[in-house]
Amino acid sequence: MIALISGKIVYKGISHLVVDAQGVGYRIFIPLTTFYELPEAGQLITLHVHTHVKQDAINLFGFYTIQERDIFQLMLSVSGIGPKMSMNILSGISVQELLRAISSGDVRRLISIPGLGKKTAERLILELKEKVLKKMMADIMPAGDNQERVNQLIKEDVLSALVNLGYKSNIAQSALDKVLQVSAKEMPMEQLLKKTLKILSG
Description:
By secondary structure, the protein is α+β, with helices and mostly antiparallel strands. The chain contains nine helices and five strands, in the order βββαββαααααααα. The chain has a five-stranded mixed barrel with strand order 1-2-3-5-4. The radius of gyration is 21 Å and the shape is elongated.
């Protein structure tokens, strides 16, 4: 699997470029965020690469930063989102803004990206919110503080979800505390919500 390519830009287009790496020309698809950072044709470039293997083709997707590649790969884990949609999303929003939109559940900002519908935006938030929060915290906080802050954000999200379902805040908080007291380890948001709902439903 190709993870990094360094070489001379032979052709530079909006959607892809060709890089000559030691005599081999690689066609690499890129988002607009990467295109804006590229030097002119004939110059040297290093790209972080995701290798996508299909039955009838092997495609390379290149990114100017590791963070771009990581969020691209993260989006591929969402059901119904493939490389083409992921590249389209990255071409319509900066990585930092995308991370903020997913972590805050900002559907309106996501659907402002051309070609991204409401259902897909909601699925992005549902499936990636917890992973994105962990990534954002890892980027800006020391390891010990990181996990503690992520856990706190998960608890806040669960409490908010319970209140939205109609439970009074103090009752929901009490049930949530009971789950946390008997748990020996931290849980994903979905599991924590299910266990708390089980207590509330008796």
